[in-house]
Amino acid sequence: MKQEAKQAEIINAAQELFTAYGFEKTTMTDIARRLGISKAALYYYFSDKESIIKSLAIREQEQFIAEIQTITTEATSTLEKLLAYATKRIELLQRHLTLSSMNLGTYASIKSLFVSILKEFRKQESELVTEIISIGIDKQEIQTELAAAEYAELYLDVLMGLRKNAFYSSERIEMNNLQFEAIKQVKHQSQLFTEIFIKGISD
User: Whole-structure pTM over 0.90, yes or no?
Assistant: First the structure.
């Protein structure tokens, strides 16, 4: 338990530095200095800053799943649940971009470290959205020609496409300008698509 607490402390310190200076500019020395420990002590818990940001990504995703489960439980209709999901998903993306604050080439290389994490996260998202749609089918808010899992995969694939279109059409993520405009764009498009999606499978 003591080790888990120390790892959490390191992740919190790294998160502050990544947010303030970006992943690229933050070093293990910076993190150790922020914590007031030696680099040797830091390396005891994490082998490099990539392993720290991976642990941070896992924590962010776990928090997202817990938060969205609470929000969707409180929402009444399938549309409200999916709108809540789409909005919260953009917030998670925004947090990840703020932490990275890097050019797209570096972001892509870091993202490649997360293959297994992203695969598991996609599975959790798929299960979550499938459950939302299944409840909608049970409540007769949605027609039943397709299985809930098929609807969920289609919905998630389109939202992913909207995110990629908004952020990866530029050579560099400029945190002050592009992020604001891209977040605004993808949030609007995600909400619009969600409304069209629900209308399409409700008629």
Answer: no
